[in-house]
């Protein structure tokens, strides 16, 4: 039970970090494509989505692992 | 207690008083991250609060161990399902190590097992299984023996069936999708294919069940891992398949989106990519189990039934119910159920399956028999000596399993690379996408370019579609699936192959080290030599010039001298005296009881035999008694120069002759050394004997470097000196007396241990007392490491060549890109290449066995030819 609570807390805290990172990367791509100009909207949006997905895949395990390391460990008291 | 701390009750063994308590408390308090330590002598437990991010239970166990106490640990082997690559191994190991109480976790991808050392009561099996489950795999406790064999086979067959079913669905529908996609190119075959099969939405409808059915495993597994912060190759596949399918859907719904327009579909990419990846999984499942056949073969050796004689009646009982002391009957053609000693009967037993010895071994009363061997000709009865897990076969299986579950240093590097590879590949995919999106497409795109091995032109594909395509291909082609299999599969095959020839490697590291050896140090007594003195020369006073004769001459001319000396020593317990008695008995001489006997300590003996006063001893004794051996002194000195111990015999105070005794070489020693020299190995001999004796033996056997007058406790230091010269050194000795030197050497080889292999020190155990098995060990190790290197080459070469190709590095020059489905096929081929390459090791035979076989073949041929010649 305690273990699952900790897992949920880790998942929540991690998501609070990797989601903004991924969305930030997607927005940065979209902004860059807009500034460069000449790209159709599908390419701008599609590209941003793809960069967002890959950023999510890269940041999700890294952030989760780091948050997990810092999370309180479940009590190891033997039953 | 702060947010990051945990409470732990650590069991501690060996405490007996209050000072023990303070020692343990002190050791634990010194660890960073440990707070509030309270050790109880009554409960033998240390209760403490600690920060798991700063200190592990393993650290605590080591600290307790360091002050002379122990944290009891237990071992558990889990069967882990769902692992496919090196990164999977890293994830499972990481998850297990995070369980409080786990001190060591070693995962073997080939066997699908995790061996865990843990503190009982702190960590539990269910916690470990849950940890494995949380990172996306399934774990169960491993059963033992034949049951484990059955379960393992069942699990493998289930996986083959599951992937076979997936392959059938994906392959069949994928083929239809292909036909529909290339409908326009079918030419005259168009008549056999309905046109509606080429409609995009039909192709889409056909592809969807492939992606959501057989392809679903990649999405669910990668998602489960991602949620817990781990990435594996499922993620690469999921991203690749998902992106290809997404492109196809978008292109169907929005043909102007820039993915090739009306003429392109991309559904076939998603369908074939899935089919090819599953093809790789299926072939891998099919071939992987074959590399661990050695264990299976060994387990099959154990006979199921034993014929036990109880109360005078013969009863058949299950072999695992045989008790120590049971009398067992073995008939011709039957297996020996357990280890024991023959009480009566006579037979020849085939021990080749355990010792590698090709010829059947004769067994008579008093001889030992090994469980799992096969009785050939006669019948015999024996008393069970070792049963169950104590039998030689059980110990050998355990050792081979342990070796297969261990990791070689080279694998640790490969695992690290593979473990970090997947995140790196995703980063590379982002970089590739950004490059081609902002720069590459504008600078290099050619509408006439096409996919490799495809007639389709890229034509109308837009900047987003092109960049995405290359990005997806990089993901698929980078999969390090074969890297995880490269080393463990070869190690499994190598340890199994060695066991077939009676050589047991205790770990994968031992194989790797054995393959790099430059110098081998042999212990002399009992290793190169038989370990007991025997009569080598008898020189009579009147025939000193004929000191080295043939065996028949020897008996004729020297029998009296030897008989008299042996009769004197008949009741002696001195090793030299025993050697003389054995020598006389071996020559069929009949000894008589001495009429009188007197031992002269440090000098020899005097006795009366058949009324003659016999004096037998060293030259000092002869000098003191005034017997002049002047005429025989040159012979005595020559024999001593050959490393032999010379005893002088006088009859009635007159010189009668000399008897030389020496520890003789084993029959195969010289051949073993010669073969090692052929392999380019420097051979040294280490002994406590004086230089003259040692050099004489070394000369006979062909050893160039002699380390003489070395006390047993200094042997390890001598090995260390050789290592300091930069040599990779192996020490060959018996596993008990030479333990420190065996431990100091890069590879310790314990020889001639018989069958109690579990008690042996050393990294390599040679079951038979045959020095040539050192050569077998080296050849198997070299062949295994060659295979490991070949496998790593095959595992990486696809990635090394494929990634630049997939990323479009050559596109500006070749105007060709690799399609995601071709990338998937290449990765499947990569895994299969590695596994098939490993399977080639099954055909490996050490040079000695090859030559023996060839000689036997020639012998048979000549015996078959003989009658013909006679005719």
Labels describing this entry:
heterodimer, A: 79 residues, mainly alpha, 2 helices, 0% strand, rod-shaped, B: 871 residues, alpha+beta, seven-stranded mixed sheet, six-stranded antiparallel sheet, 29 helices, elongated, disordered C terminus
**Classification by helices and strands of chain A:** mainly alpha
Q: How many helices of chain B does DSSP assign?
A: 29
β-strand percent of chain A reads under 5%
The strand order across the widest sheet of chain B is 18-30-29-28-19-26-27
What's the main sheet of chain B like?
7 strands, mixed
Largest interface, with counts of residues having CB < 8 Å to the other chain, equals:
A-B, 40 and 48 residues
Question: Mean pLDDT score of chain B, rounded?
Answer: 80
Which strand-content bin applies to the residues of chain B? Answer: 15-25%
Number of strands of chain B: 31
Notes on the protein architecture:
- The complex is a heterodimer of chains A (79) and B (871).
- Chain A has 79 residues and is mainly α.
- Chain A is 82% helix and 0% strand.
- Chain A is rod-shaped, with a radius of gyration of 18 Å.
- Chain B has 871 residues and is α+β, with helices and mostly antiparallel strands.
- Helices cover 49% and strands 19% of the residues of chain B.
- Chain B has 29 helices and 31 strands.
- In chain B, the strands form seven sheets. Chain B has a seven-stranded mixed sheet with strand order 18-30-29-28-19-26-27, with helices on both faces. In chain B, strands 9-8-10-16-11-14 form a six-stranded antiparallel sheet, with no helix packed on it.
- Classes of the chains: A mainly alpha (79), B alpha+beta (871).
- The interface between A and B is large, with 40 and 48 residues.
